[in-house]
Amino acid sequence: MISNRIGAALVVAALGAALGAGPVAAASTVDVTVTRGIVLDTQAAATRTCGFLIELHTVGKEVLIERYGPDGSLVAGTLVQQYDGYLLNPANGKTIASKVAGPTRDVYASDGSITETSNGATVRTAPGAGLVSGFIGHARVVMVPTGSVDGDGNPEYDVTEDTFNGLFLGNGGVCDLLR
């Protein structure tokens, strides 16, 4: 199946990126956690766009790769996700297929900044209509600590970069099809 090959390729690519090469990687510790059969049954974001309840029902797997530096601090984390399911209007039983795949990588710098990059696709298709919702692309966000902490003592961040390159269709294309 094509989606299985894509998912396997993403896992291999993410593992290669996380393991890296060179002296820093050699002194690092890498933890890999694979979780299969993750069930997500929740209200879909399309509910806000369409103005009526839309549920997301999907099952997937995630591979989490965490790399720690020689001092034990988290240096980078990559989460590779693959989900397959559908959007549902529970009022009339209409559905639209939904697939999500791709890695998200967080790099934690010694100055406290975090750079997150995501590559992948969310594809929602309907018979006779083709691609009706989703995105395919690359996103990058850079966050720097403000020096302040929130009520729970966690650092607060300012976003200094927020870019997206690719195709973003949003959720509007599912409304008429699920109505």
Task: Sum up the structure in keywords.
alpha+beta; disordered N terminus; single chain; 179 residues; seven-stranded antiparallel β-sheet; 4 helices
Give a brief description:
The protein has about 180 residues and is α+β, with helices and mostly antiparallel strands. The chain has four helices and seven strands; from the N terminus they run H-H-E-H-E-E-E-E-E-E-H.
Low-confidence stretches: 1-25
The pLDDT mean sits at 88
Instruction: Sum up the overall morphology in one term.
Output: elongated
Distance between the termini: 31 Å
Q: SS-based structural class?
A: alpha+beta
Tell me the strand percentage band.
over 45%
- Count of individual helical segments: 4
User: Biggest sheet: strands side by side, in what order?
Assistant: 1-2-3-4-5-6-7
What do you see in this structure?
This protein has 179 residues and is of the alpha+beta class. The protein has one domain (2-178). It contains 4 helices and 7 strands; from the N terminus they run ααβαββββββα. The chain has helices spanning 2-19, 23-26, 46-50, 175-178; strands at 29-43, 55-68, 74-88, 95-108, 114-126, 130-149, 155-170. A 7-stranded antiparallel β-sheet has the order 1-2-3-4-5-6-7, with helices on one face. A hairpin with a 5-residue loop joins strand 2 (55-68) and strand 3 (74-88). It is elongated. The two termini are 31 Å apart.
Which helices and strands, and how do they pair?
Elements: H1 2-19, H2 23-26, E1 29-43, H3 46-50, E2 55-68, E3 74-88, E4 95-108, E5 114-126, E6 130-149, E7 155-170, H4 175-178
Antiparallel strand pairs: 1-2, 2-3, 3-4, 4-5, 5-6, 6-7
